[in-house]
Amino acid sequence: MAMWIQAQQLQGDALHQMQALYGQHFPIEVRHYLAQWIESQLWDSVELDNPAEEAKAKCLLDNLVAELQRKAQLQGGEDGFLLKIKLGHYANQLKSTYDRCPLELVRCIKHILHSEQRLVQEATNVSTGGQTMDSLSQRHQQINQAFEELRLATQETENEMRKLQHSQEYFIIQYQENLRIQGEQRWRGQLSERTQRETTLQSKRATVEAWLTREASTLQKYRLDLSEQHQKTLSLLRKQQTLILDEELIQWKRRQQLAGNGGPHEGGLDVLQSWCEKLADLIWQNRQQIRRCEHLTQQLPLPGPMEELLSKLNGDITDIISALVTSTFIIEKQPPQVLKTQTKFAATVRLLVGGKLNVHMNPPQVKTVIVSEQQAKALLKNESTHSESSGEILNNNCVMEYHQATGTLSAHFRNMSLKRIKRSDRRGAESVTEEKFTVLFESQFSVGGNELVFHVKTLSLPVVVIVHGSQDNNATATVLWDNAFAEPGRVPFIVPDKVLWPQLCEALDMKYKAEMHSGRGLSEDNLVFLAQKAFTSSSNNPEDYNNMTISWSQFNRESLPGRNFTFWQWFDGVVELMKKHLKPHWNDGAILGFVNKQQAQDMLLSKPNGTFLLRFSDSEIGGITIAWRLVWNLLPYTTKDFSIRSLADRISDLNHLLFLYPDRPKDEVFAKYYTPPLSKAVDGYVKPQIKQVVPETDTILDTDGDFDLEDTMDVARHVEELLRRPMANQWSIILTDPRYNSPLIECF
Description:
51% of the residues lie in helices and 13% in strands.
């Protein structure tokens, strides 16, 4: 309800914008009387493009209707009678309107709430003054001020236009009067006598012609001045359009691309759409004015350059509106960037000026095809590739729909599927998971009663096509590199082959935080560990890596030294393991993870027996191992192991493990994740329980740091004692020295 209270404090244009959000599709009275209930519902949890979410939307609709009916029943007394009837009517109206399309109700309410939030935020920023206004608000204020200048300029030319039209109409009347005088003179000239009337006509004709000469010059000056004003307005329109399309919209698209790597959500399009609609409105008004100027010029031709000037103005304004329409045909929801054949996928395209230009009056159809990188380059060069594609997409046609509640014109492709793909010849060491395609969306529609016809097209972010799940890892690497390092306005789909290490760190941290769904990303120590792995370095100083570059080959083409996997494959294995099984433990700070064997041993040496830590395996993709004071490293656990028994339960099973590094009792950290004890026998059966067991080992600690004769005798006595125990043949004795990576003596 807090949002609604603030929304009611809006003033001026902001208040009018807020009121315009409501209507028959969703009455403002419903918003007012159910404010608290509406703001407490999880509208954003409903995916509008997913038909499976319709049941959730239907539940929200039913609850809304029930809440309205309940509110109506609470109204009593004489004053509440009319309100009771009105609320009951609204309940029936909403039920009737949205019962067959409940997702549209959710779309409508989400749009209303987001718009109110934006209006309140903008009003708050303005009222707090320049000291606290952030750069985003300042930029928005700058754009809004420019729109006010354009509105005033357009209104001024409209006023001048009317004056010109009035003056020209009066000129034509006087011109016709002059023609009448001339006609009467010719008639009287045929008479033999010169009369007083003829003298009067001669004088009147001279007066009118002198006035026409002066007025023709004045009209021409009016026209030239108006043309100059239009040129200035068009210049302002171009500047404003460049700011919105080449900066704001491009930044939104860049945020959308980074969101593919786990970056912050790109944000809604409502503000951008409102700006684009204002542009469309102003451009169209100026275009109509220029067309009227052309009509007036044709109606009364006068000597001078007006015809050429108006022709240029008409061409310029048409170019401006063409750029606006073609640039605002955008992909609101991108298709998946790793696209598997024979798998259903979805996408949404939107025309930001569709509602304002009434494109929805004749709903256009959108078609999709998949094209290769080379075909995408040819498209941007305007080379003819209309019929070319690199595969076959099923369900690739969709009609754009206008949503009156939100004022959006969009096409929702819900059930597309890539049936087949045609690959290009690969270059050098390039693999199929490095080949990039794109989904092309194209449509055609008319504006202004078929005055202008536009063929629009837009390309998706690059997609990598796979045919098997095993290719997903390498395909994701291609997508991550492209999303992170693509430059705006690039030739499809060129990315640098090398980047600075800190740039890659930023991309990896963004990906990691997104997958963990927490603010705990990669620390400086974690990134140093990754740098050591990537560059086969031993330096622990982060600054040593700041100016180093890493190539695509180092990232995901060349295997790490002594391994059969790449840097990315190792990192992605860690991410997948954490995401599926260990996310809560990472977010709790229980997993150090990015620590090598030697570092683990050094950290544990000074700790009491039973102290352990969790580190990612160096030798196995997607593996994590327990290192502790007596047994340095257990065989790494993988996803397969955790699908059988969780990490917390495995740690609980090992009585040797007492303290999580540095000194936290293990139960304090992991007890909340332990599986509860099994219940007693049911129907005479006792359910077996899986429990982890580590083969018993005995450790002899060399306290003086030198392995000498005395230590040898200790080992001999210990071995003799072990051999007298039962199951002696199953014992293993390993003599180690923490200063070395390999055992000194192994006895079995």
